[in-house]
Amino acid sequence: MRSFRPYLVLPFAVSLVLLASSTFVVREWERALVVEFGRISEVISQPGLYLKKPFLQRVIKVEGRVINYDIEPREVITRDKKRLTVDTYALWRVSDPKVFVESTRGSRQVAEARLDDVVYSVVRDVIGSYELMEVVSQRRDEVIEEIKRRVSSQVLPLGIEVVDVRVKRADLPETTEQAVYARMRSERERIAASYRAEGEEMARRIRSEADRDAQIILAEARMRAELIKGEADAEALRIYRRAYSMDPDLFRFYRVMASYAEVLSGDVRFVLTTESELLRYVKEGWRR
Q1: 264, CA 20 to 30 Å: which among 112, 148, 173, 238?
Q2: Rounded CA gap, 159 and 156, in Å?
Q3: pLDDT in the model for residue 185
């Protein structure tokens, strides 16, 4: 059995340590900075395996992908003195790794803290120059673009690029929201009352016009009926005269019979003398 020889293992271990301390890997989503004696000597943006001076150089890696930073909701005041709770987020990435490391020491937390301050300051200033309705609807896109442009220009000294800044929500504070809701409800009730009053006035006008038209139609109908009745009576009189002129006795007989039908059809009792003209044809009938 061979004996253990430590003098052979030591060079191998030293070689591994030297190899590990003299090489580093840069992945596709990373940017690497080689620092020598406290100064950045090289910036590597391409992925691969690289060499460095062991124990003399160190490597700082920064994220190269787009980072989503959700900013804490805060209150701002619009130009018309309305309070809004604005919830925003920013998409950013490192555009200049050297400047980024020099300004933030390569710390994402430091960069996002600075970005948070810049975004809040810009959002407060921009929204403060617009009225509430412009922010939430009328000029919303214009507000967002102005915020993005101003934030991008202010974070350039940090070596980062702002890809986008968006307002997720812009809500009224709860107390203001209740007051606005009450005011909107009062306004809607006032408009509804106005519509109801206009509707009732229109209904009264329509009913008045309908009643007037009905009276006119009824009056015209009655007048027409009287005209027709008068024409009918005149025609009847002409027929009666013509019949009387053709046979006066027959016409007289017809009139008496019509009187019988009208007088004797009811329960009224009459006391007549035998010489009454009404009983003339009755007596003549008995004689026959």
Answers
A1: 238
A2: 5
A3: 83
Domain match, 10 and 53 both: yes
What DSSP state is assigned to residue 49?
E
Secondary structure class of 159 (helix, strand, coil): coil
Distance CA 121, CA 92 (A): 17
DSSP 2-36: PPP-HHHHHHHHHHHHHHHHHEEEE-TTEEEEEEE
The residue among 45, 26, 42 whose CA lies nearest residue 34 is: 42
Question: In whole angstroms, what separates CA 175 from the centre of its chain?
Answer: 23
What is the SS3 assignment for 96?
coil
Q: How far is CA 142 from the centre of its chain?
A: 20
Please count the other Cβ atoms lying within 10 Å of the Cβ belonging to residue 63. Answer: 16
Residues of the domain holding 272: 248-288
Residue numbers in the chain where pLDDT is lower than 50 = 1, 4, 286-288
| 199 in a structural domain | no
- Smallest CA-to-CA distance from 47 within 24, 60, 28, 23 is with 28
Instruction: Return the closest-CA partner of residue 26 out of 43, 46, 9.
Output: 46
Q: Which of 151, 172, 193 is the last residue of a domain?
A: 172
Q: Which tokens hold the place of 58?
A: 């160190």
- Residue 85 structure tokens: 């709770």
Q: Which residue has the tokens 């702002």?
A: 162
Residues 127, 86: contact at Cβ < 8 Å?
A: yes
* pLDDT, tens digit, 9 for 90 and up, residues 259-270: 766 666 666 666
Q: For 205-246, write each residue's pLDDT tens digit.
A: 898 888 888 899 988 998 999 889 888 888 888 887 777 777
* Cα angle 171, 187, 74; round to 5: 15
